[in-house]
Amino acid sequence: MYNAHIIQQSGISNYSTKNQRDIILDTADNLTQIGEWARDCFHKEQERIELFLTLTRKNLNSLQGFPLSKEFVRDYKKFCSGFEKLEEEYRIGITDRSEWSKGILKWASSLTQSSHLL
After folding, report:
1. Mind listing the pLDDT tens digit for each residue in 64-75?
2. Going by C-beta distance under 8 Å and a sequence separation of 6 or more, which residues neighbour residue 39?
3. What is the pLDDT of residues 87-108, one digit of tens each?
4. pTM score, two decimals?
């Protein structure tokens, strides 16, 4: 069972492209799981959704220390802007769970596709 105790801060930074890609793909996997939970069983899985949103934010914060490729940065900035809007919508209350889920799943797919640009 996942819980907030698995979230740990690391002072270690390894700027390799492999690590960047691993973080991006982990983030995409988190978003896919969030989107599926939101679509299929939102109220039952809300605690996990919140945890995975936190893990996703941790991944994004860790990427701030990486020098990202120019090709990837454009897509990544679009993703960050879109994800921040979805995060905010979650915090204030999702009005259309189906649309919110589609947005999360769209960004998961986008990250997976653009990970080859790293």
Report:
1. 878 889 999 999
2. 97, 98, 101, 102, 105
3. 999 999 999 999 999 999 999 9
4. 0.86
CB atoms within 10 A of CB 108: 23
- What b-and-e string marks burial along 60-94, b requiring 16 or more CB atoms within 10 Å of the CB? bebbeebebeeebeebbeebeeebeebeeebeeee
Contact 57, 87 (CB under 8 A): yes
Helix pair angle (46-63, 70-92), 10° resolution: 150
Q: Which residues, at least 6 apart from 91, have a Cβ–Cβ distance to it below 8 Å? A: none
Q: Is 15 helix (H, G, I), strand (E, B) or coil?
A: coil
Ordered alpha helix ranges (H), the chain? 17-41, 46-63, 70-92, 97-114
* Residue written as token pair 């090709």: 71
Q: Kindly tell me if the per-residue pLDDT of 1 is higher than 60.
A: no
